[in-house]
Design goal:
single chain, 450 residues, alpha/beta, Rossmann fold, UDP-N-acetylmuramoyl-L-alanine:D-glutamate ligase, Protein-Tyrosine Phosphatase, Chain A, 3 domains, six-stranded parallel β-sheet, six-stranded mixed β-sheet, 20 strands, globular, Mur-like_cat_sf, cell cycle
Length: 450
C-alpha cells in the first residue's frame, strides 16, 4: 500500500479516532511519520487506542489537555469535532494548520478523482456514479462518507483508477490543497448550523471542493438551486450545469416532452429512470455528466438508470403490508431532504419525523405537506415539530416517545393505499448513534408488524 513521502511536517496530532482518525494514524505510522493520538474514550474502553499503544505510539486518552499540542506542527482532526473545541481553538491560535484526513491523504491520488458534495443527495449520486463507472469497465473505488475513508482507499488506488468520493462540509472545511478532477455541488440548503454557526461558513466549506481546480478540471453545478447559482464559485474549473427545467440552457436538462437531453441529444425519457422524485432526477443528471466525461455508452447509461433503485436509508422501499407501502428515508437529516422526499410521492403519506433538536424551526417543513395526511413525531424535537404544525394549521400530528412507537402509531392511523414514510428532518443522535442505526430500527419494526 502507498505511503506519504516528502512529508513537510515533523510531528502530527491525530485528534479523535473513529474511522477517519484510525486510518489517518495508520497512514502516518506506515509512512514513518512521528505522531500523537488524542481520543476522549478512556484506554480501557478503546480498542483502537490500545492497538496503537501496543505498537509503541504516543497515545493520550480519556481527556483533552492542551499539552497534547506540545511539539506539534500539524493537527489532523476527526471531521465531527467542531472548531470551537478548545484544542482546535488553541491550535489555530498557535497558527498550526488543522486538516481532515481527506487532506492528509490527498497526495496519494494517482488517478481521476470525482468528489461529490451538497446538502442532500450525496450518497445516492456517489453510488450511482460508482455503478456507472463500474458498468463502463473502469474498476472504480468509492470513498469518503460512504464505504471506506479516503486515507484507506487512496492508498489502494492504482494509476488511472477512478475514485468516487462523497464529502461533507465537515471534511471539506479541513482541506487546503485538495483538488478533484471532477467536483459536483448538488444543492445547498440550511444544515449543520450547530457545527458551522452560520450559513456563510457552511457554504464556504462546501465551496472548498472547487477552490484549487484548474481549467483542466470540471465543476458540475445545479443551475436551478437558488443558493448554489447565487454563489461566486471559486477555482478555475470548467463550469458544467445540470437542470430539471425544460426551458434551461444547461448542458444536461429535460425537454418539454420529458426527455433527458445531453448537449442537444436525447438520451432517454425521465419516466424510464427507476429512482423516484425530481430531486433524484437532479442526482441522475449530475451522474450522467460524469458518465459522459468517461465516454460510457448511452446503452450502458440507460440500462443502469432503468435498474438503479437507490441505496439503503435513502427513500428505500421496504415492503407492502396490508396495502400500505413502507419507505425508509432515515438519511433525511434536514428539513429540505424531508420536503423533497414528501414531494416524491402522489399517494397519501403518513410521515414519521423527529430526532435531534439542532435549534432550527420546522414551519417550512409543513409547507410541503400537500399529500401528508398524518405526521407522527418523536424524539428530542417532537414538541417543536408539534408546535410548528399548529402554527401552520396542520392538526393531524401525534406525539410519541420513540421511533418504534411512532412506527406502530403510523401503521395504526394509515389507510390502504397510503405510504408510511420515515423521513425524520432531524439528525439521529438523540436516540441513535447514526442515521443507519435509526433506519435499521425502522426496518426491524416494520418487519415485526407482520
Amino acid at each position: 500500500m502507498k505511503t506519504l513521502t516528502n512529508f513537510p511536517y515533523n510531528k502530527v496530532l491525530v485528534l479523535g479516532l473513529a474511522k477517519s482518525g484510525e486510518a489517518a494514524a495508520q497512514l502516518l505510522y506506515d509512512s514513518g511519520i512521528d505522531f500523537r493520538i488524542n481520543d476522549r474514550l478512556p484506554l480501557e474502553e478503546n480498542e483502537t487506542a490500545k492497538r496503537f499503544t501496543e505498537m509503541g505510539c504516543d497515545v493520550i486518552t480519556g481527556k483533552h489537555p492542551l499539552t497534547v499540542l506540545n511539539d506539534i506542527d500539524l493537527v489532523v482532526k476527526n471531521p465531527g469535532i467542531p472548531y470551537d473545541n478548545p484544542i482546535i481553538q488553541e491550535a489555530l491560535n498557535r497558527d498550526l494548520p488543522v486538516i481532515t484526513e481527506v487532506e492528509l491523504s490527498y497526495p496519494l491520488v494517482e488517478g481521476p478523482l470525482i468528489a461529490i458534495t451538497g446538502s442532500n443527495g450525496k450518497t445516492t449520486t456517489t453510488t450511482l456514479i460508482f455503478e456507472l463507472l463500474q458498468a463502463g469497465g473502469f474498476n472504480p473505488l468509492i470513498a469518503g462518507n460512504i464505504g471506506n475513508v479516503a486515507s484507506e482507499v487512496l492508498r489502494e488506488q492504482k494509476k488511472d483508477q477512478p475514485v468516487v468520493m462523497e464529502l461533507s462540509s465537515f471534511q471539506l472545511k479541513g482541506t487546503k490543497t485538495f483538488k478533484p478532477d471532477y467536483a459536483i455541488l448538488l444543492n445547498l440548503t440550511e444544515a449543520h448550523l450547530d457545527y458551522h454557526h452560520s450559513m456563510e461558513d457552511y457554504i464556504n466549506s462546501k465551496l472548498k471542493i472547487f477552490q484549487n481546480q484548474t481549467n483542466e478540471d470540471v465543476a458540475i453545478l445545479n443551475q436551478l438551486d437558488s443558493l448554489t447559482s447565487s454563489q461566486q464559485i471559486p477555482g478555475n474549473g470548467k463550469r458544467v450545469y445540470f437542470s430539471v427545467s425544460n426551458d434551461s440552457d444547461s448542458e444536461i436538462t429535460l425537454t418539454k416532452d420529458d426527455q433527458i437531453q445531453f448537449r442537444g441529444n436525447k438520451l432517454m425519457s425521465k419516466n424510464e429512470v427507476a429512482l423516484p422524485g425530481n430531486h433524484n432526477l437532479e442526482n441522475v443528471l449530475a451522474s450522467i455528466v460524469i458518465a459522459k466525461s468517461f465516454h460510457i455508452s448511452d446503452e450502458i447509461i440507460i440500462e443502469k438508470l432503468r435498474t438503479f433503485i437507490g441505496v439503503k436509508h435513502r427513500l428505500q422501499f421496504l415492503e407492502r403490508l396490508n396495502e400500505r407501502l413502507f419507505y425508509n428515508d432515515s438519511k433525511a437529516t434536514n428539513i429540505q431532504a424531508t420536503s423533497k422526499a414528501v414531494r416524491s410521492f402522489e399517494r397519501p403519506i403518513v410521515l414519521i419525523a423527529g430526532g435531534l433538536d439542532r435549534g432550527n424551526e420546522f414551519d417550512e417543513l409543513f409547507d410541503s405537506f400537500n399529500n401528508v395526511t398524518n405526521c407522527i413525531v418523536y424524539g428530542e424535537s417532537k414538541d417543536k415539530l408539534y408546535e410548528a404544525g399548529k402554527r401552520k394549521g396542520f392538526k393531524q400530528i401525534t406525539i410519541t416517545d420513540s421511533l418504534v412507537e411512532a412506527t406502530k402509531k403510523a401503521y395504526e392511523l394509515s389507510k390502504p393505499g397510503d405510504i408510511i414514510l420515515l423521513s425524520p428532518a432531524c439528525a439521529s443522535w438523540d436516540q441513535f448513534p447514526s442515521f443507519e442505526a435509526r433506519g435499521d430500527m425502522f426496518i426491524e419494526t416494520v418487519h415485526k408488524l407482520k
